[in-house]
Design brief:
The chain has 207 residues and is of the alpha+beta class. It contains 8 helices and 7 strands, in the order H-E-H-H-E-E-H-H-H-H-E-E-H-E-E. Strands 1-3-2 form a 3-stranded antiparallel sheet. Strands 4-5 form a two-stranded antiparallel sheet. Helix 1 packs across helix 3, helix 2 crosses helix 3 and helix 5 crosses helix 7.
């Protein structure tokens, strides 16, 4: 918009982000203000830096090509008290293990997760699906066509990641290397041998 100066554009973008309440794709901002993508990215980055530098009560969250206004983590306790919101349940250690495996090796099957953990992970996968931290993303083209899982944008937002490239270095799961799927969908260990099936496990408490 030629009639708007940079300050007005920033204010307009701020208004769009506030009114949305949800992640908004940068292309929608460009279309609404008739500006190109580099200009929109400069405005959004300026707003992000401004909120962080001045320690405002809001932050601008950038996930892939979307942007969203959210409350500052520093004030989570007082915001929670103001709305009498219960503190969200933390993920248990088993849930974090499964989520880590999916995040680093995605897309993965349940059998792949089971072999790394050594226990049946169906309950935990179901929990992560309910919390929308992972999602189904098709089926492996092998006999039985097992479901494939990957992380979601909710996962990125929950862990304050811009993209999967921001994940820290891969943790050590205790093996000599990464397991893989064989031609027929069987789990193969780093030495090239087929792995035994995981034993069933009781649902983990606290998830």
């Amino acid at each position: 918009m030629e009639s708007m100066d940079m300050k007005e554009i920033e204010s307009a973008v701020e208004g769009i982000l506030f009114a949305s309440g949800e992640p908004i794709h940068i292309d929608r901002i460009c279309l609404a203000l008739d500006i190109d993508r580099p200009a929109a990215e400069r405005v959004l980055q300026n707003l992000m830096d401004h909120y962080a530098y001045d320690r405002r009560g809001v932050r601008l969250l950038h996930v892939e090509d979307t942007w969203q206004l959210c409350s500052a983590p520093d004030y989570a306790d007082v915001i929670r008290r103001a709305f009498e919101i219960r503190k969200p349940a933390k993920l248990s250690q088993p849930a974090l293990e499964v989520l880590t495996i999916v995040a680093y090796y995605q897309p993965v099957t349940r059998a792949y997760v089971d072999q790394i953990r050594g226990v049946d992970s169906s309950y935990t996968l179901g929990l992560l699906l309910e919390r929308k931290l992972i999602e189904e993303c098709g089926r492996l083209q092998v006999p039985g066509r097992p479901r494939l899982y990957r992380t979601t944008k909710n996962f990125l937002r929950a862990f304050h990641l811009h993209s999967l490239e921001d994940l820290p270095e891969l943790p050590d799961f205790g093996g000599a290397g990464q397991m893989r799927l064989g031609d027929n969908g069987e789990i193969v260990d780093p030495d090239g041998e087929k792995c035994e099936a995981a034993v069933p496990d009781e649902p983990e408490n606290g998830e």
